[in-house]
Amino acid sequence: MKQLLFAIFFIVSANAFSQVINAESLRKVTDTSGFSGSAGLEFSLKRDVNDKFSIKTNINVQYKMNRHLVLLKNEIEFQKIESSNFENKGVQHLRYNYKIYPQIAWEVFAQAQYNKVSKINFRGLVGTGPRFKLTKLENYKLYLGTLVMYEHQELSDDVTPIERIYRGSAYFSFSLFPTETLSISSTTYYQPRLKDFSDFRIASETSLAIKLYRNFSLKTTYTFTFDESPAIGIPNSQYELTSGIVYAFD
Question: How many beta carbons lie within 10 A of that of residue 6, not counting itself?
Fold first, then answer.
């Protein structure tokens, strides 16, 4: 099964490069060393002014060994609005953590994004900074991260020039495990441009997962994003509610 998931991951990642990504959703709570992760499939059908159908695949792989933790994410979503062709968006994320002290880790990450609907041809990020664990309880985990990142962005609105800037990225995250079959997680990011704090992004993602059978869970996620300077014609705020099945593996 592990070999199959790795094959799927690399085949899919070769075809794609979304908005602010919730890196906390990559982490799988485990005390064992080695590989672990999850694979998910989500569908959504929405009808308002237009009919919209989307399908999303999400594969996360984690490798843990002593003080080292490596996280890989590949997510692709295909959207179809009315009779138009399918438009896709995707993200690839690689993150490395080194635990300096039991409550402090240092993070380094790289990310590539693509979102045709939001007119993002390409957004590349590299960043680094500390991550703090605020609690010692196993069923209630709180984290705070403060990073600096370099951003390269190319939009397809035929107006905005290529941007090469530095942003801060502060986040607060919590994970709750009230029972063996129920988990709740939430992360909120604030990402200002370092030379102009009026240019900022906010993203919040909250998920509820209910274990169904063995390694299978039903997961519902609400995501909200705000971008002070999106591409021309794209709204500042966007939200999404999705549900799907997730398979976790060790």
Answer: 15
